[in-house]
Amino acid sequence: MIEHAFLKELINNPFLLSDLRFDDISKILQNAKDFFEKENLLLEFNLKDKDKEIYVIGDIHGNLDTLLKLIEIINKNNPEVVIFLGDIVDRGPKQLECLLIILALKILDSQKYYILKGNHETLEMNQYYGFFQDFVNRFNNSDNFNEILKLYNVLPICAIINDTILCLHGGIPQDIDILKELRGIKTKERKSLLKSVSLGLFQIMWNDPKAGLKGFTESFRGSGIKSFGEDVFDNFMKENNLKLLIRSHECFPEGYRWFFHNHLLSIFSSANYRGMFAPSPASYAIIKNDEIIPKLLEL
Q1: Which of 28, 225, 247, 262 has its C-alpha lying 20 to 30 A from 121's C-alpha?
Q2: pLDDT above 70 covers what percent of the chain?
């Protein structure tokens, strides 16, 4: 078991993260993995006190400044639960640091902090968008990256709040029954699921809502990935007795965007993701009294 005092020091002094030896990083990865293995692929939260708040945080992508500001807000307001929607790494300047801080938070308070799997929690995306190479450059050993992959393989896929609000990274899949199939399955039992569910899991991490669209259509993102319209979104939500959905996966100039008559909120929690020539604020969401309140982050 890793020392909690050590983890708290890392969170309070993030510059220390850059000098960590892999042995210390390995302990953090393994300790966090132990917690994730006890969780279900579909997380379910039912707050007895509806006045309690849940914070939902979108893509971080190595933006340490944004992450530290979010942690400051969390510490000040003390929500009951904090859910990260994935895409912690790739592209940004402090990818490993962001991952380690969030894992440290998980270890310190496993009943408060949760992390869902995004489309960048995969080897293929890390190799293409930078995290894998950044990691290898630091430690001169690509084999050690397998510990990162083992962590990815036991991350939950989605979460339901008070039987009403669905949280996930990308969007609804074509498999309208997938939530029923995921319910009660531990993350470490993922391989026991039928192969037919694999496409649905993939689409949960990759699909996008699109205004004015009907049904599912092919996406510019690649094979098997879909854009979805309000009609199939409504069908999916009705079939699963849900009312609202929060997702991330897309960066918008205004920071967040509502879809489908304010029933789907898309957030993104890395400020100025496309650079200073295309500035965009970071956003997050607060769930309270079964309602969603989007917030812009002031840095």
Answers
A1: 262
A2: 99
Would you state the pLDDT for residue 29? 97
Structure-block tokens of residue 212: 């004015």
**DSSP state string for 137-203:** HHHS-GGGHHHHHHHHTT---EEEETTTEEE-SS---S-TTHHHHHTT-BGGGGGGS-THHHHHHHH
What pLDDT score was predicted for residue 18?
87
Amino acid in position 89: V
Residue 257 bridge partners (DSSP) = 266
| pLDDT over 70 (residue 218) | yes
Q: Using alpha carbons, list the distances in angstroms from residue 249 to 40, 59, 207, 272.
A: 22, 7, 9, 15
Pick from 160, 258, 166: nearest CA to 209: 258
Helical packing angle, 95-108 and 64-77, nearest 10°: 20
Rounded to an integer, the average pLDDT of 183-198 is 84
For 219-227, what is the mean pLDDT?
Answer: 97
Could you state, in order of their start, the residue ranges of all structural domains in the chain?
4-296
Q: Rounded distance, CA 29 to CA 34, Å?
A: 9
| C-alpha pair distances (Å), 81 with each of 45, 50, 91, 213, 265 | 9, 12, 27, 34, 18
d(CA 250, CA 220): 13
Over residues 220-235, the mean pLDDT reads: 97
Q: How far is CA 99 from CA 81, 160, 290, in A?
A: 18, 23, 29
Residue 117 has a pLDDT of 98
- Positions annotated as catalytic residues are 120
Task: Answer whether 102's CB lies under 8 Å from 84's CB.
Answer: yes
CA proximity to 246, closest of 37, 71, 59, 99? 59
Q: Kindly indicate the confidence band of residue 194, based on its pLDDT and cuts at 50, 70 and 90.
A: low
Q: For residue 191, is pLDDT > 90? A: no
